[in-house]
Amino acid sequence: MNFPFYIAKRYLFSKKSHNAINVISGVSVCGVALATLALVCTLSVFNGFQDLVTTLFTAFDPELKITAVNGKVFDGQDERIQSIRQFPEIEVFSESLEDNAMVQYKGRQAMVVIKGVEDNFDQLTPIDSILYGRGELILHDEVVDYAIPGIELVSVLGTGIRFLDPLEVYAPKRGSRINVASPVSSFHSDYLHSSGLVFAVNQQKYDASYILTSLAFARDLFQYETEVSSIDLKFEEGTNIHRVQEKIAQLLGEDFRVLNRYEQQADTFRIMEVEKLISYLFLSFILLIACFNVVGSLSMLIIDKKADVITLRNLGANDDVITKIFLFEGCLISFFGALVGVVLGLTLCLIQQEFGIISLGSGASAGAFVVDAYPVSVHWEDVLLILTTVLVVGFLSVLYPVRSLSRRLLTKQQSF
After folding, report:
1. Eight-class DSSP state of 15
2. Which of 25-39, 98-112, 290-304 is the least confident region?
3. How many other C-beta atoms can be found within 10 angstroms of the C-beta atom of residue 279?
């Protein structure tokens, strides 16, 4: 066994001549443990919110989305696009066209995004999980086209879930200027009827502005023929999406973007990652402050073990060995503090996952959130990062003080 480590371990668990040193050592362990616990719980809560947002978006966003680099639309009959249909990994291939328009209902107006999709859209995403109402998922029939608006948009227009009068939809005519004398003639208009359904993604970007309808209606309204704004893909179970994404991107070239679900919502996830990083850095700084308690504990221990140091020197221990003993002591305090903090943090996270003891709100505000309690998700790579951070910060925080104190103590002893 490593001799300095063996002595450091004995010092950690043995009773000191002054009880205050035991208390200070215990406080040092508790300080490191609390900082570690805070890191585990905070990062797990950020992971929980990120996973929650991911589940909300997956009900509306495809597994892979192909868009044009330049312009809003591209030809869906492009040979490169059509060749993707032959990929054996693809389960659902769906075209989509979306653009801005204005809708009016009984005098109320709103700017919206009309998203025209194919009839297989319900196979592309689990859209049923975010639909509310008593109607059927139908986008068109032989006579009319139907609308599935966002739940907040329904409130703005005052239509109710099932509206009797159709929505009036207006979009500027392509390639024409606004006629000041007769503005209405510069717009192409059409009607959307109620499907008896609304969707709720719990994201204002969608709920307050999107209307789902048929692809044929969108093409007619915006005066397109074979153009689409995106190609949406769903893959067979077990497919390596990242590998297929690279394959498709290579096939299409630089004219197209091929985006997975995270890349489709890059801004949202980037903000969450930055917030998580800032929290990690802030709590690591608190951890550094907590590690100064370890320095105080080691200072008291070095003073308490003057006689032992003399004995060790008489047995042949040099200055490096004695310094390593107290360095290992500081590392052991940090390690046990980290271990206790991780165990307590994981325990609290498990309790929160099972019972949701810390809620997001109470009373009237309780129903304003997607979930009732703080979501928690433990990622083991974060746990490993936290353990590494605690050990590195603990070692660096005691390295210089221990060397300085040991050097002073050894110098004084040599002078006697």
Report:
1. P
2. 290-304
3. 16
